[in-house]
Amino acid sequence: MDKSKTAQDSAEASNEKMLKPKSKSASERKSVLDFRKYTKQIWLAGLGAFSRAEEEGNKLFDSLVKVGEELESNTQILPIKL
Questions:
Q1: CA 70, CA 23: separation in Å to the nearest integer?
Q2: b/e burial code for range 62-75 (CB count within 10 A of at least 16 → b)
Q3: How many CB atoms lie within 10 A of CB 79?
Q4: Which pTM does this prediction carry?
């Protein structure tokens, strides 16, 4: 009778373990926090890249227009004879 009682106690203890939510260890919590931190940093880096590309793109366009204007003013347009 003692053996059956022990087996039953063991089965109940096993069931309780399965039903209880496992608490996360300190390292698991740190990993989750690190993941969230890096995810936020990636998002912010993307926003920064978008802003920089927009700003630099406008500067590049303005620079190309200026070069084109200089080239146009230094170029003689020859009349075309038909």
A1: 70
A2: eeeeeeeeeeeeee
A3: 5
A4: 0.43
